[in-house]
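Colleagues,

For the teaching module next term, I've prepared a clean inverse folding example: a structure given as tokens, and then the sequence designed for it. I'd like students to try predicting residues themselves before seeing the answer, so please don't circulate the second half yet.
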């Protein structure tokens, strides 16, 4: 068995949502570095283009597209304009911190629309083409927040949305298991990205997170990208419906 070749994505076409920064940008690099042609998408095309430009400078085959994951019509249009994907990574997501009793309907609806409904619409739109081709690997970015309640920050909408992503992943995996399309998820811990910048201004927040993490540290974007690359490749050919905790041991206690 050639184990090295099982992780090679040469000749595969991949699309990553929310690829303009942070985890999404790292995932795009990880897939490109192992041979895939990568389409970086973001609701802000300029941000996606920055990632694509940086990766093209490294010699990778990457391009950018604007994509709002809450817009099912736009998703279907892009899916129709592309060959069937080999790899789809649903990474786009947002979070705010608001106590439940103070949360407006609009704030709840926006987080659910992006984090859960957006994942469904993206999987549905590109998944249809994968099913037609009889092949494909979908990787959804969930969260350890699907399994635990984060403290001290209040974020019930985010937690509920990510729990939905995990169960959606399992549901799609079962529906599509005999049709050549695998669906898995990654559940990260706190990752050092631009989304976390500025949290140092909230006294004790990061230190409390670290106290609750057995490894005593946050993760790096490339560490999530490596798990995604594995799930995208033939090295994970027996995995579907799996949720891999990349959480430095957080959910163990």
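(Answer key — instructors only)
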């Amino acid at each position: 068995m050639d184990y090295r070749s099982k992780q090679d994505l040469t000749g595969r076409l991949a699309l990553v949502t929310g690829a303009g920064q942070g985890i999404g940008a790292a995932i795009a690099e990880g897939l490109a570095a192992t041979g895939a042609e990568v389409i970086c998408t973001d609701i802000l095309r300029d941000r996606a283009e920055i990632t694509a430009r940086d990766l093209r400078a490294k010699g990778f085959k990457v391009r950018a597209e604007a994509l709002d994951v809450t817009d099912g019509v736009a998703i279907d249009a892009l899916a129709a304009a592309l060959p069937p994907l080999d790899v789809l990574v649903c990474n786009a997501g947002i979070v705010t911190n608001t106590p439940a009793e103070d949360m407006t309907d609009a704030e709840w609806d926006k987080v659910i629309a992006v984090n859960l409904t957006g994942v469904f619409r993206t999987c549905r739109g590109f998944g249809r083409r994968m099913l037609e081709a009889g092949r494909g690997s979908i990787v959804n970015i969930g969260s350890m927040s699907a399994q635990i309640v984060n403290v001290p920050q209040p974020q019930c909408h985010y937690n509920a949305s990510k729990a939905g992503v995990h169960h959606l992943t399992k549901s799609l995996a079962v529906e599509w298991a005999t049709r050549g399309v695998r669906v898995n998820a990654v559940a990260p811990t706190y990752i050092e990205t631009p989304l976390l910048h500025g949290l140092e201004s909230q006294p004790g927040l990061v230190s409390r997170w670290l106290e609750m993490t057995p490894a005593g540290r946050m993760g790096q974007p490339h560490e999530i990208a490596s798990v995604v690359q594995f799930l995208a490749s033939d090295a994970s050919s027996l995995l579907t419906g799996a949720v891999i905790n990349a959480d430095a041991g957080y959910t163990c206690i």
